[in-house]
Amino acid sequence: MTILADENTRVIVQGITGRIGAVQTKLMREYGTRIVAGVTPGKEGHSVEGIPVYDTVEDAMQKHSADASIVFVPAPSAKDATFEAIEAGIRLIVIVTERIPIHDALKIRSFAQKATATVIGPNTPGIISPGRVKIGIMPGNLFKAGNVGVVTRSATLGYEIAGNLTEAGIGQSTCVGIGGDRATGVTFVDILKLFQEDKETRAVVLVGEVGRTVEEEVAEYVKTGRFTKPIAAFIAGRSAPQEKRMGHAGAIIESGRGTAESKIKALREAGIAVANRPSQIAEVIKPILQ
Amino acid sequence: MKLFEFESKRIFKAEKIPVPRGDVVSSSEEAKRRAASLGMPVILKAQVPAGRRAKGGGIRVAEHLEEVAEVAQDMLASRIAGFHVHRVLVEHYLPILRELYLGITIDDSKGKFVVLASSEGGTEIEQIAANAPQKIVSLKVDPLLEFEQYEARRVARQIGLTGDLMLKVSSVLWLLYQVFVKYDAAIAEINPLIITESRDVYAAGAVLSIDDDALDRHRDVIANTGETGERTQDDIEREAAEQGIAYVRLGGDIAVIGSGAGLAMATVDLIRDYGGAPANFLDTGGRITRDHVWNCLNIVMKNLKVAAILANMYGGINPMIEAAHGIVEFVREKRLQIPVVAKIRGNFEKEAWDILERAGIRVVKTTQTEDAARLVVELSKKGPR
Q: CB contact, 8 Å: B146 with chain A?
């Protein structure tokens, strides 16, 4: 079992005719992902890698009934593309696009919640269940199938830690990037809930960093006893200078949370193993799996 | 991008939020002229993109014209919170009856906008939030919905206002929310909102910060303000910002280039752990092209203290050959003598390693940043290659 998607998931690529969309479509296909259609307004009738392109998500859905969409649409139009996918009934949307205005990202999150759609990202490398499906842009060679779930904020630090696990002979069930921005569709806790239900996932690696409070939320969630699998975490930014302050409002909302210290402390208090260095993650996980 | 106070106030005024009469000046002569037309006393406020100016002498009241000239002169010759003061805002001084706080920002964890208000404004607002949180009223707003006027009235009531003041303050709060939305703000804040003896309200302190990722929608604002120019105190940080590169100077001698903020931060942490001193944090972002990597190297090498470079990159979107060419071209063109370590993984990694090794660059081929950090710290201590 995997979370979110598997080799039968039917995927639409939004922005398929762009440079990145086209290249990544080819790579995902080579990995085994079932790409059934592409969408680029104004390009209906074209094809990319033999995949038919439609003007609207609705038309693509009618002809191919997709389960998921991956969005490569440029930032100014990414909210529009995502809303279109949600309205067309797609229930899993991966937004790779970076630098989406935060007000747009918040609207996406709110709309997705109302429609009970799962939005991964924005600014995410996507989802990979090694050997089965990749809805994302990660280099597939760093991953290997197994029993550890990985959830990360940073794309490339996630690659590093998954790569460390692979090099240590530890495979992964599913790896999910929730996105590197302040506002994302899902948070760490949302993904943990899925890993809890997934029989193949025996332990979870959590890759956090300074800013936001998604790690502190994990600590609170784990303390409720509803997550029962072992977690190993790494937090980047221990030596980051305090974020430059803009006004008082941010400080009032955060009230002391958001630093690496606060996250590490909260996670440890919840009984989660926090590694000092990324490569220690594999050392922590190995005995758990044996 | 945090706007200067005078820029924020121009926008507030255009959106019908009452602000004190005043104008921004850049010389003591001009300050005197403006003060004469405003009438004494006046308040002078140094325009720097930082908070807590009052403590650095950045906010002062002048009773007569000679004093205006002196204070303006002082301010324009000073640095406040590390920033050179290029402009001073001269405003009509208003007799204060009370000070309130109004702010709108984003609550990441809830995914909502949040309206904040307090019956006590001023610089101590964060202490109030910490010690007496009940004095701060907050209301979350779904970003897909409106902030209605009745909600603004309710907030004003909740901070203890009634009658005409409740109406005036709620109207300002509602307008502030409109500004927040219209300008894609990260923060819109009035602190303090003053109530004068004649029961008028004015935004005496104004903060407006626009989401950097939304600046393209607000080119008109930037056209009037001169972009990043005076907003960064560090020359290299400023130049990096102008090229859209996220760079933070850190004071050491090992330059860090990472593809992604999390990876770059972890690299900085590890260099420290192994006894090195990072010169900077730099995130290339997702577009790893030859030119972009060249520009990133060029930025980190503007810091003359740099004695070694560690480039730590994973390629998802772009083939890593591009990154390798960017590094090699820079090293050759600039005849770089200091050690360069490249840890590169991802699409076309083997080809990238070849290109780098043929140019004499040390390559780390594992997925362990520890290996690269240890190596660069060791090489930085040995000196030029």
A: no
- How far apart CA A77 and CA B128 sit, in angstroms, is 41
CA B353 to chain centre: 37
The token pair at B300 is 């980190």
**Contacts with A, B 366-385, CB within 8 Å:** 366-370
Domain residue ranges in chain B: 21-92, 96-223, 235-382
CATH class of B235-382: alpha beta
Q: Where in chain A is the domain with CATH 3.40.50.261?
A: 126-289
Q: What is the pLDDT of residues B232-250, one digit of tens each?
A: 768 898 899 888 888 999 9
**pLDDT (tens digit per residue) in A261-281:** 999 999 999 999 999 999 999
pLDDT digits 0-9 by tens, A63-119: 999 999 999 999 999 999 999 999 999 999 999 999 999 999 999 999 999 999 999
Record the pTM. Answer: 0.94
| d(C-alpha B99, C-alpha A57), whole Å | 52
Helix extents (H) in chain B: 5-14, 28-38, 65-76, 125-131, 149-158, 163-182, 219-223, 235-242, 261-273, 290-300, 320-333, 349-358, 369-382
Q: What is the ipTM of this complex?
A: 0.92
Residue with tokens 């860090």: B256
Fold designation for A10-120: Rossmann fold (3.40.50)
Nearest CA in chain A to B214: A101
Instruction: Specify whether B126 is catalytic.
Output: no
- To the query of whether residue A248 is one of the catalytic residues in this protein, the response is yes
Give the residue from B109, B116, B272, B281 with the most A CB atoms within 10 Å of its CB, the best one to mutate: B109
For domain A126-289, the CATH architecture is: 3-Layer(aba) Sandwich (3.40)
Distance from CA of A62 to the nearest CA of B (A): 28
The CATH number assigned to the domain with range B96-223 reads 3.30.470.20
Compute the mean pLDDT over every residue in chain A, rounded to the nearest whole number.
94
First to last CA, chain A: 20
B111 Cβ under 8 Å from any chain A Cβ: yes
Coil/strand/helix, residue B92: strand
